[in-house]
Specification:
Elements lengths: L1 H23 L14 H18 L1 H15 L6 H50 L5 H4 L3 H19 L1 H23 L1 H19 L6 H9 L6
Organism: Triticum turgidum subsp. durum (Durum wheat)
Protein name: ABC transmembrane type-1 domain-containing protein
Keywords: Membrane, Transmembrane, Transmembrane helix
């Protein structure tokens, strides 16, 4: 029992130490992670961003082509010829989206890997410059190796595919709103009003969204 209690106290102390180090870690702004990018990395990021925007516009343009196909069925004569001509835009759009998706993933993955390798080498260089007492007080050798391998993987994941995916989805969102505004302005205004009203009701302090939460937090369990 004494060994189990000592082992439990040791695990709790180690867990508390990890939580203390995590809370004391300084947060880094997102764009500051790109300060290790070279000119080649900047070129890759620029190409990947443009490709992500082109890939993101594929979904809104798909609805435009589909609407044109539907309109061809009510155009009168030569329906098959009209539909065949419009359907070709699906092929062109698919080829363009495939090329843009390939450039997006390849460019952002490549630049994320290049920057993570540079960050890993600089981190190792900074660790090797520390005094010997640093590894006895602040960090052990195993912890330094684990951080160098695990943290750089997270940085590579953040700098790589996720940035391109964010640019793609943001472009899709903005493109859908622009197409809706150009085709149905009244519906667009109604959607914007709905978004603003939902934001106010959800995040306004003391609003109806917070009243059930306060009631649930202040309630007490009943003993049966």
């Amino acid at each position: 029992m004494d060994d189990e209690a000592m082992r439990g106290r040791g695990e709790d102390a180690e867990k508390g130490e990890r939580e203390r180090k995590t809370e004391g870690a300084r947060k880094v702004p997102f764009f500051s992670m790109f300060r290790y990018a070279s000119r080649a990395d900047m070129a890759l990021m620029a190409v990947g961003t443009v490709a992500a925007m082109v890939n993101g516009m594929g979904d809104p343009l798909m609805t435009v082509v589909f609407a044109a196909v539907i309109d061809c069925f009510g155009a009168g004569d030569n329906v098959l010829q009209r539909v065949s001509k419009v359907v070709m835009y699906y092929i062109y759009l698919g080829i363009g989206t495939a090329l843009a998706s390939f450039l997006q993933v390849s460019c952002w993955t490549m630049t994320g890997e290049r920057q993570s390798i540079r960050i890993r080498s600089l981190y190792l260089e900074a660790v090797l410059k520390q005094d010997v007492s640093f590894f006895d007080v602040e960090m052990t050798t195993g912890e330094a190796i684990s951080r160098m391998s695990a943290d750089t993987v997270l940085v590579q994941d953040a700098l790589g595919e996720k940035v391109g995916k964010y640019a793609q989805l943001l472009t899709t969102f903005v493109g859908c709103f622009i197409l809706l505004l150009c085709s149905h302005a009244y519906l667009q205004i109604f959607c914007l009003l709905q978004l603003c009203l939902g934001y106010v009701l959800k995040y306004q302090p003391g609003g109806r969204h917070h009243m059930p939460m306060r009631a649930m937090s202040s309630s007490r369990p009943l003993e049966l």
